[in-house]
UniProtKB/TrEMBL annotation:
Keyword Coiled coil listed: no
Alphabetized UniProt keyword annotations: Membrane, Transmembrane, Transmembrane helix
Entry superkingdom: Bacteria
Transmembrane parts of this sequence: 63-83, 89-107, 147-164, 185-209, 215-238, 250-272, 284-305, 317-338, 350-371, 392-411
Native source species: Cyclobacterium lianum
Protein name as catalogued: DUF4153 domain-containing protein
The keyword Transmembrane appears for this protein: yes
Length: 413
C-alpha cells in the first residue's frame, strides 16, 4: 500500500479510491510514509483529514441539506395528489424526476460545480421533463413507453456527469460512478429493510389501541421515506465509504462466478427446452433483460477490483462471463434481426436492435481489455476506460430514442 500511495501522490482521485477501498490499511501505510512526504501539500491535506477527530460542523449542514432534498423529492412524488394528476399517467412519465434531479443537485454542491458546467445539465433535464409531459396521451403508444424508459437512461447519464465533476473527457472516472451505483443500491436496500421494520412496528402499535394509521402513514411518511432512502444512502457511501467499501467488492466477487455458472447452465437448458427468442416475443424481452443484468454485474465487478488482492482470478472469471454474455448477445441480436425480416420495422424492434448493437460493441471493447489484462502485467485502468468511453454513446442513444423516435415513427404508434 505504501508503494501505491507514493506512486499516486500527485493524483487526488487515485488516493481517494485507495482510501475508500481499504480505509484502515490506507491509514497505517500513510502514517508510516508521512515523515518522508510531509513537505508536500497533498500529504499535509491527507494528514489533517486522517487525524482530525473533532466533529465536522459541515456534516450537520450536510444533513440539513439532505433533509431539504428528501422533502423536495417527496413533494415531486406527491404531485399527483397535490395537483389532481392521474397517478399512472404521472409516474409512467416522471418517475425518474423523483430522485435523479435531487441527486444531481447533491453532487453539484459536493463538487461545487461552476454555473457554466451546470447550465447544460439543467437545460437537458428541463428539456426531458417538458418533452415527456407534453407527449400526446396515447396509452397504447410504444414510442411513449420507449421515450419514458430511455428518459431514465438519459437522466442517469446526466447524474453521472455531475458525479464525475461535470467533465465529459474523463472516461476513467465512470467506473467509480458505476461503483457508486452498486454501493448506493446496497445501502438503500438496507435502509428500506430497516424502514420497513420500523413502519410495521409503528402501524402495529397504533393498531393495538384501535387506531388505523396505515393509509395516512404510507401516503405521507412512507412515500417521503422511500424518496429519502437513496439520498441518505448516497450521503452515507460518500462520507463513510467503509460502510460498504468492503461489502460491495465481496458481493461482486461472489456473484460473478455464480452468474457465469448460471448463464452457462441457462444456455444449455435453453437448447434442450425448445424455447427460443426467435418466435417468442416475451422470451426475447426476458433474454434482453438478462443481458442488461449480466452487463451490470460485469461493470460493477470491474469497478471494484482495482485494489483487490484477487485481481488475476477475478479477471479470469470476468473474461469467462464476458464470453458467455457475448453468446447471449449474439443470440438476441440474431433473434431481433429475424423478427424484423419476418414482421418488419417497428419502434420496439428498432430500439431493441440498436440496444443490442451498442451492447455488443461495448462488450467486445471491454472483453478485449480483459483479455489483455489477463497476463502478469495487469492494466485495470484500461478496462475502466473501456467502460467509460462508451457512456457518451449510451447518452446519444437515449436522446435518439427519447426525443427522435416519436417523430420518426409517430407519437401514436
Amino acid at each position: 500500500m505504501k508503494k501505491t500511495i507514493m506512486t499516486h501522490l500527485n493524483d487526488p482521485g487515485k488516493l481517494e479510491q485507495l482510501y475508500r477501498s481499504n480505509k484502515s490499511a490506507f491509514k497505517q501505510a500513510f502514517a508510516a510514509l508521512y515523515p518522508e512526504i510531509q513537505d508536500r501539500p497533498l500529504a499535509e491535506f491527507w494528514h489533517e483529514r486522517l487525524n482530525h477527530s473533532s466533529i465536522d460542523t459541515r456534516t450537520k449542514k450536510e444533513w440539513w441539506f439532505l433533509i431539504i432534498l428528501a422533502i423536495a423529492a417527496g413533494l415531486i412524488a406527491k404531485f399527483p395528489a397535490l395537483f389532481q394528476i392521474e397517478e399512472d399517467y404521472f409516474y409512467a412519465r416522471n418517475i425518474g424526476f423523483v430522485v435523479f434531479p435531487v441527486l444531481t443537485v447533491y453532487f453539484a454542491r459536493m463538487h461545487q460545480l461552476a454555473i457554466k458546467r451546470m447550465i447544460p445539465i439543467v437545460l437537458a433535464s428541463l428539456s426531458g421533463a417538458l418533452f415527456i409531459n407534453f407527449f400526446p396521451d396515447y396509452p397504447e403508444s410504444d414510442t411513449l413507453r420507449l421515450s419514458s424508459l430511455h428518459l431514465l437512461l438519459f437522466l442517469w447519464v446526466l447524474l453521472g456527469w455531475t458525479f464525475i465533476g461535470g467533465k465529459t473527457h474523463l472516461p476513467e472516472k465512470w467506473p467509480e460512478y458505476l461503483k457508486y451505483n452498486g454501493e448506493t443500491a446496497i445501502m438503500t436496500a438496507l435502509i428500506l429493510v430497516a424502514g420497513g421494520i420500523f413502519s410495521a412496528l409503528t402501524i402495529g402499535l397504533f393498531a393495538t389501541i384501535g387506531t388505523d394509521i396505515e393509509a395516512v402513514y404510507f401516503d405521507y411518511v412512507g412515500i417521503f421515506g422511500l424518496c429519502a432512502a437513496p439520498i441518505a444512502a448516497t450521503h452515507l457511501t460518500r462520507y463513510n465509504p467503509q460502510l460498504v467499501g468492503r461489502i460491495s467488492p465481496l458481493i461482486a466477487r461472489i456473484f460473478s462466478p455464480l452468474v457465469a455458472a448460471m448463464l452457462a447452465i441457462f444456455l444449455i437448458a435453453m437448447v434442450y427446452s425448445g424455447k427460443n427468442p426467435y418466435n417468442d416475443r416475451e422470451f426475447l424481452l426476458v433474454f434482453n433483460a438478462l443481458l442488461i443484468g449480466v452487463m451490470a454485474v460485469i461493470f460493477f465487478t470491474v469497478s471494484g477490483i482495482e485494489y483487490s488482492p484477487f485481481q488475476k482470478r477475478e479477471i479470469r472469471v470476468l473474461l469467462l462471463l464476458s464470453f458467455l454474455t457475448l453468446i447471449v448477445n449474439g443470440v438476441a441480436l440474431s433473434a431481433i434481426l429475424f423478427r424484423i425480416s419476418e414482421w418488419g420495422i417497428s419502434p420496439n424492434r428498432t430500439a431493441v436492435l440498436g440496444a443490442n448493437v451498442l451492447v455488443l460493441a461495448h462488450l467486445l471493447l471491454v472483453t478485449t481489455q480483459l483479455w489483455r489484462s489477463r497476463s502478469e502485467t495487469l492494466n485495470i485502468a484500461s478496462i475502466g476506460k473501456a467502460i467509460g468511453w462508451f457512456m457518451p454513446v449510451y447518452f446519444i442513444w437515449s436522446i435518439l430514442v427519447t426525443f427522435v423516435f416519436p417523430f420518426v415513427f409517430g407519437f401514436d404508434r
